[in-house]
User: Fold TauD/TfdA-like domain-containing protein from Fonsecaea nubica.
Amino acid sequence: MGSISHMKLRRAPLKTTGAIDHLEYVDVTPIIGREYPTAKLKDMLNAPNADDQIRDLAITICERGVVFFRAPQDDLTVEEQKKITYLLGKLTGRPEDHGLHVHPLYNDPNNIPMADGTTDENIYVINSEAMKKLYATMKNRPNSSSEPRDLGREWHSDCLFEECPADFSFLRMQDTPPSGGDTLWVSGYELYDRLSPPFAAFLETLTATCAQPVFKSASEAGGYELMSPRGSPLNFGDKFAPVHPVIRTNPVTGWKSLFAGVGLHVTRINDVYNYEDQMIRDYVLRLITRNHDCVARMHWTKQACAIWSNSCTLHAATSAPSDASSLAAPL
Assistant:
């Protein structure tokens, strides 16, 4: 797994030091995912070698795509969750003037507060009922009562609608539904490796426009201001239509990954005819749906956590009742 980029990297790929080798773990599949059944993130953060442990954790996330912490992390405060997310990026070389992402719609009065009744611009509470209200102005996201849902378009990388998307995301489950609500991740590394060399070389020449006009329309409909800037000096304004490479190299590992070839935020593959654009996106989705060994699935338990690299995975959530909620902190 993981094709080395032949392009000259700005730095050598990072290597783990063994700082977290003492932690019990099991790989979810041979290709993607690692679960730590007993580890406590608070212990890692308070360890004498905390920076070494979190740096190794960040590298492991970039190699495995996503890691799960199954033991309840109920002793972890929101500030500690934010600190870990921040350090994952800082210790692996993100620019100094970049920090935790701020959701564009943080000012929306429909945003759900955290358990203590407060809100935080770097924490986004995810709840199915709130999401319906929040994205009511999104086009082409059918209601299940009107037509069958096309869940294939739910695959996405976080914040791809920004000039500088999130490197890492940290999701903690507060309340679990009686059924449903699982989250799935697919390895962008493996999707790239399953392309034929000529087709992979062609896709490496392409970019995609990743427009998300729902944020502007939602803020106008709700009568509130969009947040700006949003964690990076590059993420400002209300355009939300950046151009990203279809294939990118993860700077932490040096491995190539399918990045912006399909999903919720990808609106067009650039510089090709319309039918070629659709053909490429349909083929990428076919790669995902016909290669389930590239997918890791998290069946949530209360206060379990998932941390993933948006540089090398796509993810999608399955439907859950409205009484489920989780805390997300993207970087």
Remarks:
- The mean pLDDT is 91.
